[in-house]
């Protein structure tokens, strides 16, 4: 039979920080969407490049500005 979780086990699991940690500062990564606009050389139209970037205390000023 499966072991039942107590309320204390559920609270302990909910309060722990989950996710990847930065090796330099130890802070949790926060994922933000970085959108950059690029002009097409041939058709002279604009397109948007979107990517998810992991941000922490170390690189927040580089990514956000």
Globally, the shape reads: elongated
- Beta-strand percentage? 25-35%
Note the total helix count. 2
Structural class: alpha+beta
Mean pLDDT: 88
Helix content: 10-25%
End-to-end separation: 53 Å
What is the N-to-C succession of helices and strands?
Answer: HEEH
What does the main sheet amount to? Answer: 2 strands, antiparallel
Major sheet: order of its strands?
A: 1-2
Number of strands: 2
Rounded radius of gyration (Å): 20 Å
Runs with pLDDT <50, length 5+? none
What does this structure look like?
With 65 residues, the protein is α+β, with helices and mostly antiparallel strands. The chain has a domain at 18-60. It is built from two helices and two strands. A two-stranded antiparallel sheet has the order 1-2. The radius of gyration is 20 Å and the shape is elongated. The relative contact order is 0.20. The model has no long low-confidence stretch (mean pLDDT 88).
Structural key phrases:
single chain, 65 residues, alpha+beta, two-stranded antiparallel sheet, 2 strands, 22% helix, 31% strand
Secondary structure topology:
Blueprint: H1 7-15, E1 30-39, E2 46-55, H2 60-64
Antiparallel strand pairs: 1-2
